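Module 6 notes. Inverse folding takes a fixed backbone as the condition and produces residue identities as the prediction. Think of it as a translation problem where the source language is geometry and the target language is the twenty amino acids. Below is one complete input and output pair. Work through it position by position during the lab.
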């Protein structure tokens, strides 16, 4: 079992989460006693279920000593699941630390197999739609897509939400730059190792005023 300081961190993250009260109480029992109920020991898989039940990188960080080899799976679940623009823009320092501590092979295994035509040393372009200023803009972020139309979707929504200077950027990467690839939401999404990639994204000359518009009410995860 983890030491008291780590237990308190895990409990604090759990109590600040949006889990239903019953699930939160079960999680508290697991963290405090290492048991599910009636003396049944909680396993790493039980803590994985807790860490993926609600999008919370703080909870993943706090539960890391209890997740064991499933830490990377919990991290990727949070990085590729639904999230809000405020959440991911304000948590880059935490994400940077968690990614740097993770095992790259296990990160890749937690996603889907890379498309065959993108493997090896082949360089290919990925795209990212952004808007806003400062840390809200994050031109060199973690989340990119191989689908230019999808990047336009995010930039178009940023424009409709009145974020400053919405734009689409392209970045040339290789398989070695990719932490995980997933197409579970049909977005052909790459989570890249943004601290490793030295190439600078280039802004595409796209006039968003003439581009297709998308409704702000679509609640899929932001990038």
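Target side of the pair, the amino acids:
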């Amino acid at each position: 079992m983890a030491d008291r300081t780590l237990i308190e961190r895990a409990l604090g993250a759990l109590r600040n989460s949006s889990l239903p009260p019953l699930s939160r109480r079960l999680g508290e029992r697991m963290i405090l006693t290492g048991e599910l109920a009636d003396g049944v020991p909680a396993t790493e898989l039980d803590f994985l279920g807790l860490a993926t039940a609600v999008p919370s990188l703080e909870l993943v960080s706090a539960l890391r000593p209890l997740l064991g080899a499933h830490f990377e799976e919990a991290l990727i679940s949070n990085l590729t699941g639904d999230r809000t623009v405020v959440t991911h823009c304000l948590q880059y320092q935490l994400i940077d630390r968690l990614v740097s501590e993770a095992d790259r092979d296990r990160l890749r295994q937690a996603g889907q197999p890379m498309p065959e035509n993108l493997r090896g040393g082949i360089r290919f372009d990925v795209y990212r739609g952004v808007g806003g200023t400062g840390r809200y803009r994050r031109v060199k972020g973690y989340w990119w897509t191989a689908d230019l139309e999808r990047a336009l979707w995010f930039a178009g929504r940023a424009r409709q939400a009145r974020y400053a200077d919405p734009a689409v950027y392209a970045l040339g990467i290789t398989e070695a730059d990719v932490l995980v690839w997933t197409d579970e939401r049909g977005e052909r999404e790459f989570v890249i190792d943004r601290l490793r990639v030295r190439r600078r994204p280039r802004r595409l000359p796209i006039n968003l005023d003439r581009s297709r518009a998308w409704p702000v009410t679509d609640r899929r995860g932001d990038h």
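Reference fact for the lab report: The chain has a mean pLDDT of 82.
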